[in-house]
């Protein structure tokens, strides 16, 4: 079974850990790499550009005993945020030129890459910290292949407010989009750049909805299964389906279950419980996968991309038929993204 994934952080990992990203991506390091992708059927997905505050490998072991509630990170200066984003975009171009990935900017690009050898890559900006009030940086990133954008990560930007890492609450934690944020969403809509609501506050989510775009949460789960600020309420999930959007199951242990937040450990059964609920509320045509590979601790049995067949097997064991599994694994995302890239 081929997989299209709604979110990974491999570009950030490569930026923070190596001086030879092409060779490192070809080795079995981290969650997403060529050997793991080929073993697990990962054929493409959204590759995030992220403004990390410092270089270095992310230590997932800090969550082994559970997740601490953390306040919002402070706003990051745009100039400081731009350097890692530009470097990661450069890494993506190196991987593209080496034939490891194919940066897709049209539906035809996406279709060819998904059935070809390189991994299909939709470049995504996770948090618009690097974009200034004139929005000029968006034009530059678009020229480099960017086709998806989240206005915030879990820290405020000039465009809006993200949610903190907090449990036992939904995303109603702060303000929505600023006037600049609404202008950014409007420009994305005009340019054909998808707008991702993962990490946005509840108010921000509904502000995006007012722009009359398909509502997308590339890597978010259901509050009804695990009440967490990073997850979506049933009203949000329902709106995703009603607007023809997409939500991607986040594999992060912290957002899969209450026990995952408290202990740092979760299972494939927790993934299935989330999928059941998201399918029930958003609809089976509007749910896919959004792993958060290389950006979060993974559940037992799903340590990296090579283990994706274990999730597919869990779907079968749970009773999902092959048609539904195919929709969840790749068809829903491919159909949605292709329609956006043709716009």
Give the key terms:
single chain, 343 residues, alpha/beta, TIM Barrel, 6-stranded parallel β-sheet, 42% helix
How would you describe this structure to a colleague?
This protein has 343 residues and is α/β, with parallel strands linked by helices. It has a single domain, classed as TIM Barrel, CATH 3.20.20. 42% of the residues lie in helices and 12% in strands. It has 14 helices and nine strands. The strands form two sheets. Strands 1, 2, 3, 4, 5 and 6 form a six-stranded parallel beta sheet that branches. The protein has a three-stranded parallel beta sheet with strand order 7-8-9. Helix 1 (10-17) packs across helix 4 and helix 12 (268-282) packs across helix 13. The protein is globular, with a radius of gyration of 18 Å. It starts with a strand and ends with a helix. The model has no long low-confidence stretch (mean pLDDT 97).
Describe the secondary structure blueprint for this structure.
Blueprint: E1 3-8, H1 10-17, H2 21-25, H3 34-40, E2 42-49, H4 78-97, E3 101-103, H5 107-114, E4 119-126, H6 136-143, E5 146-150, H7 179-191, E6 194-195, H8 202-209, E7 216-217, H9 234-242, E8 246-249, H10 253-256, H11 258-263, H12 268-282, E9 287-289, H13 308-318, H14 322-342
Parallel strand pairs: 1-2, 2-4, 3-4, 4-5, 5-6, 7-8, 8-9
Helix pairs in contact: 1-4, 5-14, 12-13
């Amino acid at each position: 079974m081929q997989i299209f994934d709604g979110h990974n952080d491999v570009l950030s990992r490569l930026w923070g850990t190596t001086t030879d990203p092409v060779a490192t991506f070809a080795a079995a390091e981290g969650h997403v790499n060529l050997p793991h992708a080929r073993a697990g059927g990962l054929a493409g997905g959204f590759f995030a550009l992220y403004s990390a505050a410092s270089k270095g490998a992310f230590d997932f072991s800090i969550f082994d005993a559970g997740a601490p509630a953390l306040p919002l990170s402070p706003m990051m200066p745009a100039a400081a945020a731009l350097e890692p984003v530009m470097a990661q975009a450069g890494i993506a171009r190196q991987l593209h030129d080496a034939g490891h990935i194919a940066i897709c900017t049209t539906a035809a690009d996406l279709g060819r890459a998904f059935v070809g050898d390189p991994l299909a890559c939709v470049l995504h900006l996770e948090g618009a910290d690097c974009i200034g009030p004139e929005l000029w940086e968006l034009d530059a990133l678009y020229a480099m292949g960017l086709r998806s954008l989240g206005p915030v990560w879990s820290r405020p930007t000039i465009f809006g407010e993200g949610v903190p890492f907090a449990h036992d609450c939904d995303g109603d934690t702060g303000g929505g989009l600023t006037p600049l944020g609404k202008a950014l969403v409007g420009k994305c809509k005009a340019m054909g750049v998808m707008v991702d609501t993962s990490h946005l506050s509840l108010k921000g989510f509904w502000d995006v909805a007012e722009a009359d775009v398909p509502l997308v949460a590339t890597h978010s789960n259901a509050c009804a299964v695990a009440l967490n600020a990073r997850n979506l309420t049933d009203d949000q999930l329902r709106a995703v389906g009603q607007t023809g959007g997409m939500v991607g199951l986040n594999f992060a242990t912290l957002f899969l279950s209450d026990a995952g937040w408290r202990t740092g450990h979760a299972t494939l059964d927790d993934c299935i419980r989330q999928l059941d609920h998201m399918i029930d509320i958003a609809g089976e045509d509007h749910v896919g996968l959004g792993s958060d590979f290389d950006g979060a601790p993974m559940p037992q049995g799903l340590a990296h991309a090579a283990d994706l067949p274990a999730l597919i097997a869990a779907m079968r064991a749970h009773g999902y038929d092959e048609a539904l599994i195919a929709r969840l694994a790749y068809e829903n995302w491919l159909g949605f993204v292709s329609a956006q890239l043709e716009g």
